[in-house]
Amino acid sequence: MNKLLEIKNLTKNYHTIEGECEAIKDFNLEVKNGEIISLVGPSGCGKSTLLSIISGLDKEYTGIINKDSKIKMAYMLQSDALLPWLTIYENALLGLKIKHNMTKENIEYVDYLLDFYNLKDFKNNYPKSLSGGMKQRVALIRTLALKPDILLLDEPFSALDQQSRLIISDDVYKILKKENKTAILVTHNIEEAIIFSDKVVVLSKRPAKIKKIIPIDIANKDSIYERRKDPNFHKYFDNIWKDLDNNES
Amino acid sequence: MSPEQKKFIKKIKINKIKIWLCQILIIILFLGMWEFFVNKGIISSFIYSSPSRIIKTVIELINNHNFFIHIFVTLKEVIIAFILGITLGFIIALILYEFKFLAKVMDPFLTMLNSLPKVALGPLIIIICGANSKSVIVMALLINLIVSIITIYNGFLCTDEYRLKLFKTMKASKIQTLTMLVIPSSYQTIIASFKLCVAQTLIGVIMGEFLVSKQGLGYLIVYGKQVFNLNYIMTGIVILALISYILYKLIVLLENKLLKHLRD
Ligand SMILES: Nc1ncnc2c1ncn2[C@@H]1O[C@H](COP(=O)(O)OP(=O)(O)O)[C@@H](O)[C@H]1O
Ligand SMILES: [Mg+2]
Question: Which of B173, B160, B174 is nearest to B97 (CA)?
Answer without folding.
Answer: B174
